[in-house]
Amino acid sequence: MDQIIGNFQLLLDYPIVNLKIIIDGVMIGALFALAAYGLALVWGVMNVKNLAQGDFVIAGGYIAWWLAQHGVHPFIGVVAAFVVMWGIGWVAYKLVISRVIERDLFTSLLATFGLAIMMAQIMNLLFGSDTQSVQLDYATYHFADGLIDVPAAKLMGVIMAMSLAVGVIIFMKRSRMGQAIRATSQDRRAARVMGIDTERVYSFTFSLNSAICGAAGAIIVMAWVIQPFYGITYSVRAFVIVTAAGLGNLPGVIAAGFGIGALEQYGSHILGIGYQQAVAVLLLLLVLLVRLMQQRRQRQVLR
Amino acid sequence: MIIPKPVLYIGLLALTVAAPFLFPAYMTQLATLWLMIIVAMTWDMTGGQMGYNSLGNIFFYGTGMYVAAVITIGMVYDVREYTDAAGGGIFAFTEGQYFTGLVLGSIGAGLFCALCALAVGWLTFGLRGPYFAIGTLGVAIAAGELVSNWEWIGAGQGISMPNYPGEFDEFKLLIYFVFAGVGVLLFIFLNWLYTTRFRSAINAIRDDEDKAEAMGLRTLRYKLVSWSMAAFFVGVAGGVSAFQLIHFEPLETAYQTINLGIFMVVCVLLGGKGTLWGPIIGAVMFHVIKEVTWNYFLGWQWVALGAIIIVTVVYFQDGLLGWLRLKKPEWFGIRVTKKDEVVTGPAE
Question: What is the ipTM of this complex?
Answer without folding.
Answer: 0.82
